[in-house]
Write a structure and sequence with these properties.
By secondary structure, the chain is mainly alpha-helical. It has eight helices and no strands.
């Protein structure tokens, strides 16, 4: 009986693909939150996807293979999640308060990548900000700055 249980557990472990990005990795948490924000309005635009890839590539200095791995890990983690706590708690352990505010700015940039902002995206970022301990004032300032960055220069 014990051998059968042990074999079953080993088969589960063997069936999982090895990834450079463990579930508790803050990069996966960040990518998962990006997917949560992008999917909040029900559509993920090409502009949002392009922005996410550029953002992750630059932020973490990834080659194409590692980028694809991180995107897949973030997408999978985001789809498995029932709330944002798992990701924000990982990020809270790795980021200082200023970096958390900066992260919100990045999420707002992602919202504005397609030129549209929805109430659902606002709500998701509000929840994430709350869990990260970012003040309403800083959340709104980051939103305004992202909106200004996204407007075409005259």
């Amino acid at each position: 009986m014990f051998e059968r249980l042990q074999a079953f557990i080993q088969s589960l472990a063997a069936s999982r693909t090895e990834s450079a990005f463990a579930p508790g990795d803050p990069r996966v948490a960040f990518a998962a939150l990006c997917f949560q924000v992008m999917e909040a309005d029900g559509t993920v635009s090409q502009e949002e996807q392009r922005h996410l890839h550029d953002l992750l590539r630059e932020r973490y200095d990834l080659d194409d293979d590692k980028l694809a791995e991180l995107v897949d890990a973030g997408r999978e983690a985001g789809h498995e999640a029932v709330d944002y706590y798992r990701f924000t708690s990982d990020l809270n352990r790795h980021l200082d308060p200023d970096q958390r505010v900066e992260l919100l700015g990045v999420l707002w940039d992602l919202v504005h990548a397609d030129g549209r902002r929805s109430e659902m995206e606002d709500h998701v970022i509000w929840r994430i900000a709350d869990l990260l301990g970012v003040s309403s004032r800083d959340r709104v300032l980051q939103r305004q700055e992202a909106q200004a960055r996204s407007e075409p220069e005259a």
